[in-house]
Every structure is written in C-alpha cells, then in structure tokens.
C-alpha cells in the first residue's frame, strides 16, 4: 500500500508525496504555462497553492487557490472546486483565520458531496476536524476523526489513515491517555514507513518524541526529532520543520535545560514569523516566556507577556492554548 499526494491532480498526479516542494512548484508552473483549458489550469494552480502554502509563501498561495477555484468553476468541475476550497481553508487555518477556515472547508465538503471524488470529501472533513482540534474542541472533533479513520481504512488511503491516527493520538495525548496516544503515533509511523510517506512519518516521529520526552527519555526524544528534521529539510516542509523545532524546545524545557530551550524557542519564533504561522509563533513565544521565567526573568514582565499571549489566544479562538497560558501563570508566578 503506497501513499499518494491526492492534492497533486491531472498531469501532476505522478508526483510523489515525498517530492521536494521546490520540484512541485517548478513542475506546477510549467503545467500552468502549458495548460490548454481551465480544467488543466485548476490542477496546476492547486499544486502551486499547496507548494507555496507549505513553503510559507502565503500571499502567493492565496492568489493561487483562488485562481484554481475560478478555473475549476469555469470548467464546471465540482471535484476541482472542492480541492481549491480545501486548499483555501487549510491556508486560512495556517494563518490563524479559523472562522474563514471553517467556512471554506464546509464549502469544500459541500462541493465534494455533489462531485465524484470521495478523497476530496474526506480531506475537506479532515480539515474541519483539524481546525476544531487545534482550537481545543477535542471532544467535538474526536468522533469526526474516528469516522474519517474508518473511511480511510475502508478506502485503502494510507496517507489519510496516517493523518487520522495522528489527530486522534493528539487528542488522547491532551486528555492524558499517553499509552493510547503512543500506540496510535507508532501505528501511524509504521503505516507511513510502509507506504513511503516521509511527510506523515515526520509528523508521527514528532508525536512519539513528545511522549518519549514525557517519560523522561530526553536523548531518545531528541534523536527522533533529529530524524524527522532531516525529512522536513529534504522536502522543504517549512511549517513542519518549525513545529519540529518547537517540540525540541518543549523537550529541553521539560528536561530543565532552560537556557538551551530559550535559544531554540527564540529561533523558532523567527521561523514561524517568516512563514506567517501565527499559532505556532504564539506557542513558541509561550515556551520562550516560560524558559525566561525559569531563568529568573522579572515576574512583572513574565506576567505581562503571559497576559498578552492569553488575550491573543482567546481572541483568535485557541481555547486550549489559552488554558495552557493560565497553567503557566499558576506554575510560574506566586
């Protein structure tokens, strides 16, 4: 069973899920220039949008998914319209625009319901589930994650199986069910390995590293993150790489290596800023504040920064992150 990159469509369908994003962008641009009709353009522009999104070139990604949608609408291709809307919704989530993400992903699911591509429908629903999960709605999205996992297994979609397993594992990890979470991340890692899905494997390794760190196995956790980092760099997965580095900061912080953690978090804030990923940036800032506090930062400054982060998380609808900030305040301040 081999993973495919379902978002690479038409003449780009032969591209591997492990293809470098630079290669994807180059080929997609060539296909766009050579396209003879709106259907071909829709597929090429979708690949451009996805490559640019993952590279952090968000303005171009925004233009590309909208152009893909217009081309798909001109071609009266409901499946292509669904994929373009999915790309736009995923970009909106990445940029911290959660209301817009829900709206676009809901439209993607509706378009897919009237089309013929079950995978497009699955990706749209998965996008809705992930958007709810990152906002902290774990109970509400667990059922949808589990439904999508069952559908992915029935359809033989290994890449989607890996995604669903990782999402469910994240929910169990946040609920404190670490053994269950580790088993699911491990299964996801094995399926990704068997299907040669290096992207899914990198995310699974990050989850395993997190849980390994919670058991006090610091060196093993750092080694897992280093392995995942190599894959992220080879494929130019800028957002995945930044989240990998944020997890490295988490591992070092838990180990009491606060000076190292502070350096990692500071660099990671810059990484997230450069790719316009506000959720990751704010979470890295939280780690940075906590590290500084452990190293003796002025309590009034720590309280001010935590208050600013709490307000940001609350305003943007990141409820779980807001709770994390409150926990940090209780832990770090008298």
UniProtKB/TrEMBL annotation:
Residue runs in coiled coils: 211-238
Query: Pfam families this protein is in?
Result: TPR_12
Keywords of this entry:
Coiled coil
> Which InterPro entries does its entry note?
TPR-like_helical_dom_sf
Family annotation (PANTHER family): HTH-TYPE TRANSCRIPTIONAL REGULATOR RV0890C-RELATED (PTHR47691:SF3), REGULATOR-RELATED (PTHR47691)
Designated name of the protein: Tetratricopeptide repeat protein
